[in-house]
Amino acid sequence: MLGQLKRDLEKLSNKEKANILRRFFKTGKGEYGEGDIFLGINVPVQRKVAKQYSDLSLAELQSLLDSKIHDHRMVALFILIDKLKKANEKEIKEIFDFYLKNTRNINNWDLVDLSARDIIGELLQDKDRRIIYELAKSNNLWEKRISIISTYAFIRKNDFKDTLKVSEILLKDKHDLIHKAVGWMLREVGKRNQDIEEEFLNKYHKEMPRTMLRYAIERFPDEKKRVYMGK
After folding, report:
1. What predicted TM-score, i.e. pTM, was given to this entire model?
2. Cβ neighbours of residue 32 closer than 8 Å, sequence gap 6 or more
3. What gap in Å lies between CA 111 and CA 65, rounded to an integer?
4. Are 119 and 80 in contact (CB under 8 A)?
5. Contact (Cβ atoms closer than 8 angstroms) between residue 214 and residue 183
6. SS3 content of the chain, % helix, strand, coil (to 5)
7. Which of 88, 108, 148, 224 could form a disulfide with 220 if both were Cys (CB 3.0 to 4.6 A apart)?
């Protein structure tokens, strides 16, 4: 079954699109996605393929996540999300632990953004969220991004405290991909409660990286943007 999945993905590959994606996801030497290989398959198609193989075992998914091919890893994550929908309590814990064990393989921003909320965030809705803060303090770029993107699940339930706390931890991070992720999550908070977002911005906007701040205030009126950007 695993072999058939790989063959199906190979048939769907698109060299022209793969070349574009290699540049877009910074796969050159010294870049954050160095060495990543793309088949050039669109996300909706990857999701569709994943649904056909939702019965793959975690051992088989491990093989996909260990692959150097980006599309293999993405489809594995989509399968995990599908598995959660029919998992019992024991299986849910196994999937949660499996995901955390594989953060080294969830190693590009789209892999994080399309999985962290639906796996880590959703599973922590009514549980101890300590792991979010451990990830936020990691030296690994992708674990830090997982920490903030996971809180999107809480934001959707109008629960903002963890997003704000993790944003504080990541406030002075040096990487552009963290600046963008934090700014995005602050903007999502603001969509639901702008007063809470502005309370955070009034406290921290002078020390926030410019990219983080721009993302956070993207929906603000131009006059208010100028006030915040002027510092």
Report:
1. 0.95
2. 26, 108, 141, 177
3. 11
4. yes
5. yes
6. 70, 0, 30
7. 224
3-class SS of residue 69: strand
Q: Three-state SS string across 146-182, please?
A: HHHHHCHHHHCCCCCHHHHHHHHHCCCCCCHHHHHHH
**Can you tell me the distance from the alpha carbon of 79 to that of 118, in angstroms, rounded to the nearest whole number?**
12
pLDDT tens-place string over residues 65-114: 999 999 999 999 999 999 999 999 999 999 999 999 999 999 999 999 99
Please report where in the chains the tokens 């594995």 appear, as a residue.
Answer: 76
CB atoms within 10 A of CB 230: 7
**Contact between 117 and 146 (Cβ < 8 Å):** no
Q: Which residue has the tokens 């990487």?
A: 175
Helix/strand/coil for 50: helix
Helices (H), 35-175: 43-52, 58-65, 70-84, 89-101, 109-113, 116, 122-123, 130-136, 141-150, 152-155, 161-169
Give the CA-trace dihedral at 45, 47, 52, 55, to 10 degrees: 150
Q: What are phi and psi of 107, to 5 degrees?
A: -120, 40
Q: What is the distance between the terminal CA atoms of the chain, rounded to a whole angstrom? A: 57
- The DSSP code for 41 is -
